[in-house]
Design brief:
Strand order of the largest sheet: 1-3-8-5-6
Number of strands: 9
Shape: globular
CATH topology: Jelly Rolls
Number of helices: 2
Order of helices and strands: HEEEEEEEEHE
CATH class: Mainly Beta
CATH architecture: Sandwich
Strand content: 35-45%
Largest sheet: 5 strands, mixed
Helix content: 10-25%
Length: 144
């Protein structure tokens, strides 16, 4: 009986890490799109959709002290965005799932900001689709 217990425990311990790694690996494939404003424009609009665990990073170059306004309209209540500061890949400076799908403020440093569009895990597991319209505005702080 003891041998059976140890064999079962060993089987559980050796298969569990493989099961735990799958969701982590699924999140590695983040699609990136660089946003370039048209000459003279201070905003850009993206209309797109994601399905399931799909995630998109919209990369915007901005300078410290500029004003930013990012807003998203979506047909799926589990569709959100995070705003990540330059050189940051994990910790968001804004998470729209904690409030509204809009952020506005003064940028703390210069570099490439990421607007990460994603779906909450419960909706992603059901392979739901989210159609969204993302508007990104960057101006000099005094111009707003």
């Amino acid at each position: 009986m003891k041998k059976f217990f140890y064999a079962l425990l060993l089987a559980i311990l050796t298969t569990s890490p493989a099961i735990l790694v799958k969701p982590i690996l699924a999140q590695e494939g983040i699609r990136q799109e660089r946003i370039q404003f048209k000459p003279g424009a201070s905003s850009a609009v993206v209309e797109d959709s994601i399905t399931g665990y799909e995630t998109v990073d919209y990369v915007l170059n901005a300078r410290e002290g500029q004003y930013v306004n990012v807003s998203m309209a979506t047909d799926n209540s589990a569709n959100y965005f995070n705003l990540l500061a330059p050189e940051e890949n994990e910790e968001a400076m804004f998470n729209s799932s904690m409030g509204e799908n809009q952020y506005e403020g003064i940028l703390p440093k210069s570099g490439d900001y990421k607007v990460r569009v994603y779906m909450m895990r419960s909706a992603a597991r059901r392979n739901e689709v989210a159609n969204y319209r993302l508007e990104m505005i960057i101006t000099e702080a005094g111009d707003r």
